[in-house]
């Protein structure tokens, strides 16, 4: 779902510089980069559902390089085991002790590629990491690196040999969105940049991880007033009342929408959230959290259409409460 706006949302100088750096590699996808950074700032994670070859991997690699972050990629396959994700204890014959060998999930930024191609048991290995920022192996809980961000991908057109993500796991992703194909002009720019050395190889960090951690702390101090919270609750509650929805958005969705709004406001150099922030972000937060009933599926009704209609129906409060 592509939202329209007249000007870039980013006014925070360091975040703007970060986006500009990523755009040296990723062409024509500013909105998707911005949404990814909103997720990182709010401590959330992203699910990308799109066809192969549109730049999903390149975008997350460029973000990791721009932050100087530890990056790992997990290629999900049917035979992948939970220990291949979280890590495993290996017996050292010299010391006669078990030593933990960390899995790829123990990085700052993790690309979970084609997550729906692995078994539910292995998918579940990510649940604790996504929600708690830790993994438990051999009865011991280990904290993950901070910041910690997962971008998972899945192919919307190939269903053979796949395992749909359960609702409990979908609910752990802050956003779900698509990248989409480039325009002709954008694709020409992609070819021009790739003609010689791939631009990702020369990308340099522009924002230190300790500064990013400070920004994440600052985001939590962005004010979300009572009117904004009531607006969030009204939207989420409307999904539960819709005639075509079998399972509406959970309270976790309300929290996610508020946190995303705080990060969105921070990127605009505001210390308060306004209702328009919530209205813009709601489709990306909610579309993967709704389950439609059988009648809706037969009529080709989509969650995107339902959310768009609800946002038109739910009253938007006027003004803001930053002075309170």
Automatic annotation (TrEMBL):
Q: Name one GO molecular function term.
A: ATP binding
Is ATP-binding set as a keyword in this record? Answer: yes
- Which UniProt keywords are present, listed alphabetically? ATP-binding, Nucleotide-binding
AAA+ ATPase domain boundaries: 42-183
InterPro entries of this UniProt entry?
Answer: AAA+_ATPase, ATPase_AAA-3, CbbQ/NirQ/NorQ/GpvN, ChlI/MoxR_AAA_lid, P-loop_NTPase
Show the PANTHER family listed in the entry.
Answer: METHANOL DEHYDROGENASE REGULATOR, MOXR FAMILY PROTEIN
Q: Which family does it belong to?
A: Belongs to the MoxR family.
Official protein name in the record:
AAA family ATPase
């Amino acid at each position: 779902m592509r939202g329209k706006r007249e000007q870039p949302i980013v006014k925070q100088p360091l975040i703007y510089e970060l986006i500009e750096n990523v755009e040296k590699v990723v062409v024509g996808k500013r909105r998707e980069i911005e949404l990814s950074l909103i997720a990182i700032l709010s401590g959330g994670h992203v699910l990308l559902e799109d066809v192969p070859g549109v730049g999903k991997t390149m975008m997350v690699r460029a973000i990791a390089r721009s932050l100087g972050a530890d990056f790992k990629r997990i290629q999900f396959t049917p035979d992948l085991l939970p220990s291949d994700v979280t890590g495993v204890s290996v017996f050292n014959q010299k010391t006669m002790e078990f030593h933990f060998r960390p899995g790829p999930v123990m990085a700052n930024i993790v690309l979970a590629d084609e997550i729906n191609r692995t078994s539910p048991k292995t998918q579940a290995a990510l649940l604790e990491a996504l929600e708690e920022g830790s993994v438990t192996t051999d009865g011991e809980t280990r904290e993950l690196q901070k910041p910690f961000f997962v971008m998972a991908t899945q192919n919307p057109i190939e269903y053979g040999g796949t395992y749909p993500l359960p609702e409990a796991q979908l609910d752990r992703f802050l956003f779900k969105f698509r990248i989409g194909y480039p325009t002709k002009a954008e694709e020409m720019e992609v070819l021009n940049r790739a003609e010689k050395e791939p631009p990702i190889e020369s990308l340099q960090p522009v924002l230190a991880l300790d500064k990013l951690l400070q920004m994440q702390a600052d985001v939590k101090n962005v004010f979300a007033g009572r009117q904004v919270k009531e607006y969030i609750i009204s939207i989420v509650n409307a999904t539960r009342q819709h005639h075509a929805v079998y399972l509406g958005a959970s309270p976790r969705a309300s929290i996610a929408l508020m946190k995303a709004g705080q990060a969105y406001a921070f990127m605009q150099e505001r210390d308060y959230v306004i209702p328009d922030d919530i209205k813009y972000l709601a489709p990306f937060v909610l579309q993967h959290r709704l389950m439609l009933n059988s009648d809706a599926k037969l009529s080709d009704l989509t969650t995107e259409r339902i959310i768009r209609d609800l946002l038109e129906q739910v009253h938007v409060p006027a003004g803001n409460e930053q002075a309170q």
